[in-house]
Fold each of these.
Amino acid sequence: MTAADPLAALTRRFAALDPLLPTAQDPPHGRFMTSRLPDGTRVRAVLTDTRADPATAQALWSALRVWELHPLLPDGVPSGPALHALIEKWRPVVRTTQEDSSATVTWPSRDAEAARVLLDHGFTPLCVLAVRDVMPVDRVETVDVIVRAATENDLDDLVRLALAETAYSALVGGTVLRPEAEQIKRETIGTHLGQGDLVLVAERGGVPVGLAECWLNESVPGSWAETRLPHGRWGYVNCLSVVPDARGGGVGRALMSAAHRELRTMGAERMFLYYNPPNPLSSVFWARQGYRPLWTIWEIRPASALR
């Protein structure tokens, strides 16, 4: 990589912001945008326009049409003015988008200067990718909760528990309650059970009251994970759900204690997950579990609301 290499410059920027950020990777294919700062400096980005099938899992946490900006900022340029210039160039592109749409930017959580500009343009920090950088032994005592591996016989209860999380997340995050939600959850959970992923169920008095759906994710060259995480074997928490009348009683802690233990046994070196900062439950719970934000997904719905 040379000094003029935009990925090298972005990698240096990331390293200065947060030592856990990975090496910058090529953005996906899209439309190149260039903007000029008042001092004449050029800043660039790639703009992608993707569409989701409403019958797929992606549609439960995403608008059906997603415009995403992938900034490629050079050395020595403050992120605030650079992002402002790029968003000004972006706004006319999405101005007429009227459908189920969003405008998004994924950017390192510790870049406060960027956060200020994104807020000023109407973005909301709807989601973060959070990491648990160490894998200590969790010690949780919950005498009235039993956590066990789920089986295909639990599928109806698992779907019910997953939909409880979906309904709550739709109030406080980017989740969308779509007519296909129950069928999507049934198919995806059934797939994870069938392929041996870690699916745990918590019972209180013999009644299922919580779910943890997890699996291993390898960040290796050429993988999607490489764009967000340093290389290595990561444990991933896809869904943690506790029924409303059992929340606050230690069910979630018991589930995650078991999940961390099992994933460590399976070879996970570190953990990651997504949560919604506006969620008053998860934003507190995950910090207490040792997770902290690495990337923030800033979003506007619909995309035409970009200001």
Amino acid sequence: MMAEIKANPGSREALEAKHGQVWDTSELQEDFDVLAFMAPFVIVMRKADTAKGSIEFQASPRFYFNFVAD
């Protein structure tokens, strides 16, 4: 999965069209506490409501997308 993301990184606009909300690193830090990394996923807790879940990410450009609550 990580190889596929690296081979075809999306622009912010393309990721938003496919997955909805997209975060850069500073935006992610505002909305979530990062609990663990397991590429291409990040385990997070949403600050607004303490919901735990996962977010996918791509390395370059670094964007986080597709939050899924547990």
